[in-house]
Amino acid sequence: MLPTVFQKAAKVISIIEENQYEAYFVGGCVRDYIIGRPIHDVDIASSALPSEIQNIFPKVIPVGLEHGTVIVRYEQESFEVTTYRTEGVYTDHRRPDEVYFVRNIEEDLKRRDFTMNAIAMDAKGEMLDPFYGREDIVSERIQTVGDAAERFKEDALRIIRALRFSSQLGFSIEGHTKKAMKHYKGLIDKLAVERLTVELEKLCAGSFFKKAVDYIFELEIYHHLPIFNDEPLLLKELEPVASLAPVFAFVALKRSSITVTDCIKAYKCSNQLKQQASNLVDAYHHYKKDGINAWFVYQWPRDHWDHFTYLVKQIDKDIIDIKEIYSIYEGLPILSKKDLCVNGHDLMRWFPERPKGKWIKELLDQIEYHIVISGLANEKSKIKEWIQWNLPVQD
Ligand SMILES: Nc1ccn([C@@H]2O[C@H](COP(=O)(O)OP(=O)(O)OP(=O)(O)O)[C@@H](O)[C@H]2O)c(=O)n1
Ligand SMILES: [Mg+2]
């Protein structure tokens, strides 16, 4: 009996088969199933063309028709189905010039990156493994399908993928594969950097990150990783972490010549990641100046704390007990400005002679700060009393 994640998708495969086409589970889901890792998404490959899939299922979303990928909606769930394909020449090493649909699963498996990723599984759990991927999984070996040089010339991202699989799984890279990685690493520079970023994030998150870093040094791949090309040793200092935000914050804090913005630009990351990394840098400075006090805990979002403690550990070797942060959090009198029992209207009512101005915001900020940090009670009368003594000079 297949695990639950496969069961619904297995019905989709059966329906395709009932319509005289083939369909298999392929890629990461089969690999992770064999290894016994959690399966996050299930991919299906089929001999049916996108238009043929559209004829079988009433609800099909054409997400990447040029690559042969559609999303089949089935019983309120989505399944990605990709037509068997083989790829044409990659003149710019970024993307295939053409995709050719084929009717044979082996042709499809043949153009995949590593043997462990080139295993197909049918709806009953029967495996089709023409490149002995299972053997490589048992031997914990990352090996390209067929000629390594060809696979990396087709898509140089695979060089980074080999590293990230090594980081995630702790597997070793087979000799020919490794040699070809070293030889073709220059092609990494031609990749669309966003693709590199996705793999780098997974690489940094792997439990066997150190092993991947050893390969990065052995094969001198750091020359082709933006930012780290100038500062490769920083990679050796990093521990695994699930986001690039603390990685970039770490880099910026360790090297004054590199800013978070430099990292974000180099890897074309989102503004959200930029904000997270900058917050971490600010939080670190705050911590160095004032330690972890109520204002610190109040200010920084909760989803930030793990990465913050990680950063302090990486930089200062200090271990911060996250429970300590939580207990300060539990004792906070307010959790946001919305919880203040006064607002701008109250202030204006209390000081009718004062024209509207930035004093209102400044005063609210001060009230907020004192409530959080110095025990000012969050009660209208107490706040009013406190203001008598602290009203800023009129602007
Ligand atoms: N450059 C690439 C990227 C992907 N693939 C193939 O497409 C599958 C799906 O790719 P992707 O989802 O990017 O990787 P996964 O192996 O599924 O890993 P993950 O579990 O992290 O998604 C891979 O298993 C592999 O067979 C490939 O041959 N070459
Ligand atoms: Mg996948």
UniProtKB/TrEMBL annotation:
Which intervals hold domain CCA-adding enzyme C-terminal?
253-387
Q: Broadest EC class?
A: transferase
What is the stated purpose of this protein? Catalyzes the addition and repair of the essential 3'-terminal CCA sequence in tRNAs without using a nucleic acid template. Adds these three nucleotides in the order of C, C, and A to the tRNA nucleotide-73, using CTP and ATP as substrates and producing inorganic pyrophosphate. tRNA 3'-terminal CCA addition is required both for tRNA processing and repair. Also involved in tRNA surveillance by mediating tandem CCA addition to generate a CCACCA at the 3' terminus of unstable tRNAs. While stable tRNAs receive only 3'-terminal CCA, unstable tRNAs are marked with CCACCA and rapidly degraded.
Instruction: Give the domain of life.
Output: Bacteria
GO MF term (any one): CCA tRNA nucleotidyltransferase activity
Q: Other comments? A: A single active site specifically recognizes both ATP and CTP and is responsible for their addition.
What catalytic activity is recorded? Answer: a tRNA precursor + 2 CTP + ATP = a tRNA with a 3' CCA end + 3 diphosphate; a tRNA with a 3' CCA end + 2 CTP + ATP = a tRNA with a 3' CCACCA end + 3 diphosphate
Residues the entry annotates as binding Mg(2+): 41, 43
Protein's name according to its UniProt entry: CCA-adding enzyme
Question: How does it associate, per the subunit comment?
Answer: Homodimer.
Give me the residues that bind ATP, please: 28, 31, 112, 155, 158, 161, 164
The entry sums up its family as follows: Belongs to the tRNA nucleotidyltransferase/poly(A) polymerase family. Bacterial CCA-adding enzyme type 3 subfamily.
Q: Which SUPFAM superfamilies match?
A: Nucleotidyltransferase, Poly A polymerase C-terminal region-like
Cofactor names from the entry are: Mg(2+)
What keywords does the record list, in alphabetical order? ATP-binding, Magnesium, Metal-binding, Nucleotide-binding, Nucleotidyltransferase, RNA repair, RNA-binding, Transferase, tRNA processing
Stretches assigned to the Poly A polymerase head domain: 23-142
EC number from the UniProt entry: 2.7.7.72
Domain (tRNA nucleotidyltransferase/poly(A) polymerase RNA and SrmB- binding): give its ranges: 170-228
Where, in this chain's numbering, is CTP bound? 28, 31, 112, 155, 158, 161, 164
Organism for this UniProt entry: Oceanobacillus jeddahense
